[in-house]
C-alpha cells in the first residue's frame, strides 16, 4: 500500500471519529435535557430527533468506507507506524464496527426511539407505581435485545453476549463463580452483623433536612473531591446519573429527599466519582471516542471508591462531620462516631441505591439472576414483578409493598441496559483492590483524608486510571496497577475489617 | 413522469425535511445550553460539535438528490396534486436550497464554529467592556458575510442581499423610505414630549427588587398570557432570547436586574410574545421546517405587541398593578396611573432593549445605518465603536461611557445576524396595524385586558397568525388580516394617541 493511501485513510478515519464524537456530545445533551427539565409536551418530537440523530451517527459508524479505512490501517506495516492512541482507536473502532454492522440501521433507530420514550414512561410509571403502563415498553425492549443477540451471535450463553458489551470478556460462568464466592463469604459476615448486640442507632438520621442546605453541602463535598465546576454542573433528576459530554463538560444529577440527608449526600459523592474519571481524561484523547471510561466496571469502581471507601470512612467524617453539623444547625447533635456508624449500618432494604455496602451485592445478584432468566430461559416482562418480589424475600427477607419500590426502581432496563448491573459489584471488587495498592503508594492516605486533603488521592487515580480513558483495558489497569488479576477477596477483607470495628464482632 | 417516481420523490423529500428538522432541534438545544449554563471549559469542544452537526445538516440541505426531488415535485402536473402544506414546503425548501448550494460546506462549517465561539467571547467582552478582545471575531464574521454576499449575488445593494434573508423582499430603498417617514413624524412628537411640563416621575422604580420575587412575577405574567409551562420553560441568560425547539418545547430566557423591576418584566413579556407564536403553530406543521415564524418582522410584531401594546397599556396595569404591589410589599406605593406613566416615559437612552417605544426606532435606525456602511461602504470592525458613539450623540444626544453600554450591547453581530435589526421596527409597524384590526374584531378588547382575560387575544392571534407558521408570507398575513399593505402611519397614530394622553400634549 502506498504512503499516500495510508495517509488518506488515517486522515479520513480521524475525521470520522471526530464527527461520531460530535454526535455523541449532542445526543448526551439531548438525553441529559430530557431527564433534567425538558418540557413534557416536547417529548414525542424530542424522541423522534434522538432517533434520527442516533440513526445518522449509526450510519457513520457502520459505513462501508469506515471498514475500508480500518482495513487499511490494520495492515501490519501501517499499524506499527501509528501512535499508541491511534492504534487503540483502530482496535476499539473495529470492535464496535463489527458489532454494529450486524444491526440494520432502521432496526437500531426504532430501538433508540423506543428506549427514549420508555425512559420517560418509566419515570411516570415509577412515580405512580404502575408497572402495567411500563410493561409493554419493557416487553418490546426485551424483544429488540433478543433480536440483537441473534444478530451478534451467541458465544457461551445468550446473556454472555450482553455482558461483554459492558465488561469486555466477562461471562456468565465467571460471574457465577465470582458472585458465588462473594455470597459464600458475605452471608456469614452478614449473619454475624445481625447477631451483634452493637447495632448503630440510625433514628436521628430521619429528620427534615432543608433541600437548599443539602444542595449546598453536596456542592461543597464535590469541591473537596476536586470536582471542577468550571468543567461541569450539578442538577436534579429522579434517578441520579453522571454524563460526560467532554472532559470540559461533565454533568451529574442528584435527588434530594426531604427526610433523609444521606441519600443525596452519598448519591452525589457516587456520581462525583464517575465525574472525576470523566473530567480527568488526558487532553490527547479529547475529541476522540477514547475520551471516556474504559468499562462500566472500572467506571463503577470509581463511583464506589469515592462513595464507600472514602465517603463512608471514619477518617472522612472525622474531618467533615463538623461542616455537616453547621449546615444543619441543631439537627445533628450525636458524636461523629455515631454518625459514621449510622451511615454504615448493614440492614436488608428494598432500594438498591440506598443499600449498604454489604447487602448491595445481593441486590446486584438478584438483578443478575433475573437478567439471566430473561435471556437464557425466556422469562417474560409480565413475570418480572412476581419474580422480583420472590427473590427479595428469599435473599433479603423482605418484600416490596408496590412496584415503585420493587421492579420499577431502576432506570437501567428502560434504556435497554441489560448486562449492566454486574458492573456495580465488579466496581466494588476493583475498588477494594485499587485501595490496597493506594494504601501502599500513599502510606499517609488516611491522614490526608482526616486533613480534608483529598486532592493527592484524586491525583493518584488520575495518574493511574483517569488520564488513560479507553487507552487501557480493565484487565490492563487492574494488573498494571495492583500487580494481580481481579480477586474478590480484597473486597471481602475490606468489608470484614470495617464491620468488625463497627459491630465489634 | 410516472406516479411511482412522483410518490418516491414526495416520500423521500418528506423524510429529508423531518431529518433536517431533527438537526435543527438538536442545534437549538446545543445553543440554548451554551447560553444558559454550559460549563465554560467545554466551550471549545461544544463549538466543534456545533460546527460538525451544522455541517452535516447543511450537507443534507444542499444535497444533489434534494435538488432532484424538488425538481420532480415542482413539475406542474405533480405540484397541483400536493397539499397546501406540501406546496409551501417545496417553495420554501427551494428558496433555501438555491441560497445554500452557493456556499461551500467547508466555508459554512468554519463560519458556524466561528460564530459559536464569537457569541461566548462577546458575552465576556461585554461584561468586561473589552471591545478589543471581540473585534477580531467581528472582523472575521464580516469577512465571511462579504464572501457569502458575493456567492449569493448582489441585487440592488450588497446589504439588500442580507435584508432579504430576514424579511423576504425587503430592500434598502424601501427601508430608507419607511424609516425616513417614521423619523420625520416621530421627531416632532419626541420634541413635543420633551417640552411637556407633565414629565412622569420614575424615581420610585429604582429600588432593590428581590430576584426571586421578580422571577415569580415573570412566571405569573407568562401564565396570564397563556404561555404553556408544560410546553416550555423560563431560564436566565445575559441577553434574553426565545427559542422554539418544537411547538411542545419553547424556551425563553430573561435577565433580572436587582435595581430595576421593569427590565426583566418587560423582557419576559417580550420573549413571551415570541414564545406564544412558536407554541401555537398548527399540529399539521410539527416536524416540518414550516413549524416556525414566517419572518423576523412578523415574529417581532408579536413580541412587541405583547410587550408594548398590551404590557405597557393602561388597561393592563389597571388589572395587574395590585399583583405587582403585593409581590413587592411596601415598595410600590404610588398609584397605578403613576406606574403606567413611569413605564412609558420617553427619554433618550443608551441601551436598545431598555429603550422606550418611541426612541427605540432611533436605536434601530443607527444599527441599520451602520450595517449599510459596513456592507455597502466597506467600513471596518475597528471603526465601529467611534461610529457608534458618534451616531448616538447625533440622534439621541447621548454617548456611551464604555463599549459595554455601546457597540457591545447586542448579541446579534456576534452571531452574524446582519440585516436582522430592521425587523424590530418592522415589528412595531406590523403590531400597530394588527392592533387596529384586533380592536375592530374584538370591540371589548381593552375590557378583556382590564379583566385579566388575555386568552381571547392569544386565541385571535393564533387563529390569524400563529397556527400558520410559515404557511403564509408576511405580506399575505398583513394584507389578509388588515386588508392593507404595511403602512407605518398606524404606528405613528398609535404612539401619538398614547403619548398625547401621558404627556397631556
Written account of the structure:
- 2 copies of one chain form a homodimer.
- In chain A, strand 2 (242-246) and strand 3 form a beta hairpin.
- Helix content of chain A is 64%, strand content 3%.
- The first copy, chain A, folds into 2 domains: 3-153, Methane Monooxygenase Hydroxylase, Chain G, domain 1; 172-502, Orthogonal Bundle (Neurolysin, domain 3), CATH 1.10.1370.
- The first copy, chain A, has a 3-stranded mixed beta sheet with strand order 1-3-2, sandwiched between helices.
- The termini of chain A are far apart.
- Chain A has 505 residues and is mainly alpha-helical.
- The first copy, chain A, has helices at 3-36, 43-61, 64-74, 76-79, 84-100, 105-128, 131-152, 158-166, 172-195, 211-225, 261-279, 296-310, 314-327, 336-342, 360-377, 384-396, 422-441, 445-450, 455-464, 474-482, 489-502; strands spanning 232-236, 242-246, 249-254.
- The A-B interface holds A 18-19, 21-23, 25-26, 29-30, 33, 37-46, 48-49, 52-53, 56, 228-233, 245-250, 286-287 and B 18-19, 21-23, 25-26, 29-30, 33, 37-46, 48-49, 52-53, 56, 228-233, 245-246, 248-250, 286-287.
Amino acid at each position: 500500500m502506498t504512503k499516500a493511501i495510508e495517509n488518506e485513510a488515517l486522515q479520513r478515519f480521524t475525521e470520522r471519529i471526530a464527527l461520531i464524537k460530535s454526535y455523541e456530545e449532542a445526543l448526551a445533551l439531548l438525553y441529559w435535557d430530557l431527564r433534567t427539565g425538558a418540557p413534557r409536551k416536547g417529548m414525542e418530537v424530542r424522541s423522534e430527533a434522538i432517533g434520527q440523530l442516533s440513526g445518522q451517527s449509526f450510519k457513520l459508524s457502520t459505513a462501508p468506507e469506515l471498514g475500508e479505512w480500518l482495513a487499511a490501517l490494520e495492515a501490519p506495516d501501517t499499524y506499527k507506524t501509528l501512535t499508541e492512541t491511534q492504534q487503540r482507536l483502530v482496535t476499539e473502532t473495529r470492535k464496535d464496527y463489527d458489532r454494529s454492522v450486524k444491526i440494520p440501521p432502521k432496526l437500531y433507530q426504532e430501538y433508540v426511539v423506543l428506549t427514549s420514550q420508555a425512559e420517560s414512561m418509566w419515570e411516570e410509571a415509577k412515580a405512580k407505581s404502575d408497572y402495567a403502563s411500563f410493561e409493554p415498553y419493557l416487553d418490546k425492549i426485551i424483544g429488540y435485545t433478543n433480536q440483537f443477540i441473534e444478530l451478534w451471535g451467541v458465544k457461551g450463553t445468550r446473556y454472555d453476549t450482553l455482558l461483554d458489551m459492558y465488561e469486555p470478556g466477562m461471562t456468565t460462568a465467571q460471574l457465577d463463580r465470582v458472585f458465588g464466592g462473594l455470597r459464600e463469604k458475605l452471608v456469614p459476615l452478614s449473619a454475624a452483623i445481625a447477631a451483634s448486640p452493637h447495632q448503630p442507632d440510625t433514628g436521628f438520621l430521619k429528620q427534615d433536612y432543608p433541600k437548599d442546605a443539602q444542595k449546598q453541602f453536596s456542592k461543597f463535598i464535590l469541591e473537596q473531591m476536586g470536582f471542577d465546576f468550571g468543567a461541569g454542573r450539578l442538577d436534579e433528576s429522579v434517578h441520579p446519573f453522571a454524563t460526560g459530554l467532554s472532559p470540559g463538560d461533565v454533568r451529574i444529577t442528584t435527588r434530594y429527599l426531604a427526610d433523609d440527608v444521606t441519600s443525596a449526600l452519598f448519591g452525589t459523592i457516587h456520581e462525583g466519582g464517575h465525574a472525576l474519571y470523566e473530567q480527568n481524561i488526558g487532553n490527547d484523547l479529547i475529541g476522540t471516542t477514547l475520551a471516556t471510561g474504559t468499562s462500566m466496571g472500572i467506571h463503577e469502581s470509581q463511583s464506589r471508591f469515592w462513595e464507600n471507601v472514602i465517603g463512608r470512612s471514619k477518617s472522612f467524617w472525622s474531618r467533615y462531620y463538623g461542616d455537616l453539623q453547621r449546615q444543619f444547625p441543631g439537627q445533628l447533635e450525636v458524636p461523629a462516631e455515631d454518625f459514621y456508624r449510622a451511615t454504615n449500618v448493614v440492614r436488608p432494604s428494598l432500594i438498591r441505591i440506598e443499600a449498604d455496602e454489604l447487602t448491595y451485592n445481593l441486590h446486584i445478584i438478584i438483578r443478575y439472576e433475573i437478567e439471566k432468566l430473561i435471556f437464557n430461559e425466556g422469562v417474560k416482562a409480565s413475570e418480572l414483578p412476581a419474580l422480583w418480589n420472590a427473590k427479595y424475600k428469599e435473599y433479603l427477607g423482605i418484600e416490596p409493598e408496590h412496584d415503585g419500590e420493587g421492579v420499577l426502581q431502576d432506570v437501567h432496563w428502560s434504556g435497554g441496559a441489560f448486562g449492566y448491573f454486574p458492573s456495580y459489584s465488579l466496581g466494588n471488587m476493583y475498588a477494594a483492590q485499587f485501595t490496597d495498592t493506594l494504601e501502599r503508594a500513599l502510606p499517609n492516605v488516611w491522614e490526608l483524608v482526616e486533613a480534608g486533603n483529598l486532592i493527592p488521592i484524586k491525583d493518584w487515580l488520575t495518574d493511574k486510571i483517569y488520564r488513560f480513558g479507553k487507552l487501557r483495558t480493565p484487565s490492563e489497569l487492574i494488573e498494571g496497577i495492583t500487580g494481580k488479576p481481579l480477586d474478590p477477596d480484597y473486597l471481602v477483607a475490606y468489608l470484614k475489617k470495617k464491620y468488625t470495628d463497627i459491630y465489634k464482632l
